[in-house]
TrEMBL record:
One of its GO terms (molecular function) is peroxiredoxin activity. Keywords: Oxidoreductase, Peroxidase. The keyword Oxidoreductase applies. Residues 11-96 form the Carboxymuconolactone decarboxylase-like domain. This is Alkylhydroperoxidase AhpD family core domain-containing protein. Gene3D superfamilies: AhpD-like. InterPro entries: AhpD-like, AhpD_core, CMD-like.
Length: 145
């Protein structure tokens, strides 16, 4: 067997993930997380997971929302670049912690630049983005020019 599109194989489960994604978007909106930061976090999580499908989609989405190519070019090395605010850096570090589940737990993101609502919403964003990456990768979604 080559691959199975798990979303098509179990559409009810896939629809549940779509619903969770919508709930996370609402939480992000209520927490006041900038939509561009949401896309940047999705990109960073997708970089860590090696998900080409999601990288292409969220790079395009961020460009459509007004993100600059220079900032996108350095997301993979955000800690070295001076392009990002303290809040964006904290969000990247938090998303990386959730994605990597470092032990012992690192809290390098906890510099006070994120509210409790934002920490929760961005944590959920990283969780759901990790799930989407795994769906796309294991289902071998095509990524062609």
């Amino acid at each position: 067997m080559s691959s199975v599109n798990i979303g098509k194989q179990h559409p009810t489960v896939y629809k549940g993930l779509v619903k969770l994604d919508a709930e996370v978007k609402s939480a992000l909106d209520l927490a006041g997380v900038d939509p561009l930061l949401v896309e940047l976090v999705k990109i960073r999580v997708s970089q860590l997971n090696g998900c080409a499908f999601c990288l292409r989609m969220h790079t395009r989405d961020s460009l459509a929302k007004g993100e600059k190519a220079d900032r996108l070019a350095v997301v993979a090395a955000w800690w070295e670049a001076q392009y990002f605010s303290d809040q964006e850096r904290a969000a990247f570090a938090l998303a990386e912690q959730v994605t990597g589940l470092a032990v012992p737990e690192r809290r390098t993101w906890d510099d006070g630049s994120l509210t409790e609502d934002q920490v929760s919403a961005i944590t959920w964003l990283a969780i759901v983005m990790n799930a989407w990456n795994r769906v796309a990768i294991t289902s071998h979604y095509p990524v062609a020019p």
